């Protein structure tokens, strides 16, 4: 009878130990992820009124857009189906 009890207790102890290890791992993973992502705040010394005075209508017309970064997104395997042409549009000649 003692051997039967021992067979039952060993998996129970192993399961409890595994749960504790998983809990410790999740706790440390969450704690380390917080330390990696820090928010940096910058203060602006110029009041908003100064910016409004600087950007006149003439300067806004002459302003050039800043080039946006190009991101190579992975191509998704699923292709979007083509829409049928609307009834108000003539069919395209191919």
Task: Report on the architecture of this protein.
- The protein is an all-alpha fold and 94 residues long.
- 51% of the residues lie in helices and 0% in strands.
- It has three helices and no strands.
- It has helices spanning 2-36, 48-54, 57-62.
- The longest helix is centred in the N-terminal third of the chain and has 35 residues, at 2-36.
- The chain is flat.
- The chain starts with a helix and ends in a 32-residue tail after the last helix.
- The mean pLDDT is 77.
Tell me the layout of helices and strands:
Layout: H1 2-36, H2 48-54, H3 57-62
The multimeric state of the shown protein is single chain
**Count of strand segments:** 0
Mean pLDDT: 77
Name the structural class.
mainly alpha
Spans of at least 5 consecutive residues whose pLDDT stays below 50 are none
* Helix and strand sequence: HHH
Strand content: under 5%
Major sheet characteristics: none
Radius of gyration from the alpha-carbon trace, in angstroms: 32 Å
How far apart, in Å, are the first and last alpha carbons?
Answer: 85 Å
Number of helices: 3
The helix content, as a percent range, equals 40-55%
Which of globular, elongated, flat, extended, rod-shaped describes the shape?
flat
């Amino acid at each position: 009878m003692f051997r039967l009890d021992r067979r039952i207790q060993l998996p129970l102890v192993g399961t409890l130990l595994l749960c504790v290890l998983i809990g410790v791992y999740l706790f440390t993973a969450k704690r380390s992820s917080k330390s990696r992502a820090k928010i940096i705040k910058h203060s602006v010394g110029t009041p908003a009124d100064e910016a409004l005075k600087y950007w006149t209508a003439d300067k806004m017309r002459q302003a050039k857009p800043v080039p946006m970064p190009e991101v190579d997104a992975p191509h998704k395997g699923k292709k979007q189906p083509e829409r049928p042409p609307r009834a108000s549009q003539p069919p395209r000649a191919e």
